[in-house]
Amino acid sequence: MEEFSKLHEDSNDEAQQLATEHGFDSVRKLPFGEGLFHFYPQDIPHHRQRPSLKHWQSLEKNHRVKKVFQQEGFDRQKRGYRNINDIDGNMNDPLFTKQWYLINTGQADGTPGLDLNVAEAWKLGFTGKGVTIAIMDDGIDYLHPDLAANYNAEASYDFSSNDPYPYPRYTDDWFNSHGTRCAGEVSAAANNNICGIGVAYNSKVAGIRMLDQPFMTDVIEASSISHMPQVIDIYSASWGPTDDGKTVDGPRELTLQAMADGVNKGRGGKGSIYVWASGDGGSYDDCNCDGYASSMWTISINSAINDGRTALYDESCSSTLASTFSNGRKRNPEAGVATTDLYGNCTLRHSGTSAAAPEAAGVFALALEANPGLTWRDMQHLTVLTSKRNQLHDEVHQWRRNGVGLEFNHLFGYGVLDAGSMVKMAQEWKTIPERFHCVAGSIQDTHKIQSGSKLLLAITTDACQGKDNFVRYLEHVQAVITVNASRRGDLNINVTSPMATKSILLSQRPRDNDSKVGFDKWPFMTTHTWGEDPGAPGSWR
């Protein structure tokens, strides 16, 4: 049984005494908020997901306890864990020439030049030195000879087993290779004759093991996201709610609080950088239904394949900021992402948007080395301004320009990350002005929509002009919507800015048959109006 409790006093000794009195084996102070403690037994039975009522009630009645929160389990899935065969420089590392996403010369039927342009960043001397990236996943094989030298043990932790050793749990099918593969993409060492090399091959990588238990809890997610925010610079997450085309889910209360603390207080106040895989639900899903990928506090990364097309599992949505690379569509055995694997092995078969997020984390590490003063918002601006269309193309979603001329795509965001351009701009970058939040307006009336028809709503705003929170140019735009439908998957929601930029906030999801829950104050987000004037003549509609 696990409980999260808020005490009147912020004392470890008192919390430990309470744990002993009420039948708990251990207690841990939570890093977010005052007086918050996590009570848990050493051994959690895998079959039991509901906390014991007797323990909970006795703890709640104690006068030293302000409030007790039951930690109920919910589902979180690794993204892109799939076998590639199941899907319709001068380095001496043996797989380096296979790492087409680093330097694409046309390997594995790819398109030459379609890569992350890391070679330019490396030539400028940026390799990730001094930057720590945490892989929040199922653990890291930190004994791997291609990872051991860059492993940051101090910043690592196992929240699945509550110990400082996030080594993956053994399974016959190597299911827990996910985190190790992601770690290699970021920080695999260079010129050691082992596997390939990381995007930021002199960076440090931390393992946060938090995915390998029968169910997820809010405390585990929040603890992972807020682990050592003054040591860890970038958190990479290749997981989220189920990508089944019918789930609408996101971070719970504690995780939201931890994320907010991270961007406000992490890295000495410059803000923790959260990189999220946008999802593997394909055309049947919409990543704006994933509250992690669609959060303004995360940088949501989609993937392209080695010839510039959409991967078949890619989800599209208006909150995706940019793209990196995953495996090719063809069955070429070398079209996957080459990286480290469990037990000192190497692989050519890493794939999915799982592979895309760590690549982005690596590029951001290069930018942080170029300018350690970058804030979390600076990194988003650099992403928007330096990502390239390159040769990315999709048969459904065309490239368009927003009201200030920035080119974007509903699936690829602002394009593929360009490490060379990003580090050059980062070197000269001046921190952007303070962020302001303005509520443009709201419509509280209830409207009924007949099946097959449309509802058009309009809001005119002055963007809070004349007030302290006046917004002169846009970053993130959220439409907080409550709507119920006889079939949620039939809903399609669009928004058009006063500067005539259209964003698709929600596409139809043919597998979503919900008729009861709908969307309750759900924050649909778009980045497509980045840089626009929110108070331009006209209305949001």
UniProtKB/TrEMBL annotation:
InterPro entries: Galactose-bd-like_sf (IPR008979), Kexin/furin (IPR034182), P_dom (IPR002884), Peptidase_S8/S53_dom (IPR000209), Peptidase_S8/S53_dom_sf (IPR036852), Peptidase_S8_Asp-AS (IPR023827), Peptidase_S8_His-AS (IPR022398), Peptidase_S8_Ser-AS (IPR023828). It comes from the Eukaryota. Its main location: secreted. It catalyses: Release of protein hormones and neuropeptides from their precursors, generally by hydrolysis of -Lys-Arg-|- bonds. GO terms for biological process: peptide hormone processing. The active site is at D137 (charge relay system), H178 (charge relay system), S354 (charge relay system). Its EC number is 3.4.21.94. One of its GO terms (molecular function) is serine-type endopeptidase activity. One of its GO terms (cellular component) is membrane. Residues 431-541 form the P/Homo B domain. Keywords: Cleavage on pair of basic residues, Disulfide bond, Glycoprotein, Hydrolase, Protease, Secreted, Serine protease, Signal, Zymogen. It is found in: Secreted. Belongs to the peptidase S8 family. Furin subfamily. Serine endopeptidase which is involved in the processing of hormone and other protein precursors at sites comprised of pairs of basic amino acid residues. Responsible for the release of glucagon from proglucagon in pancreatic A cells. This is Neuroendocrine convertase 2. It comes from Albula goreensis.
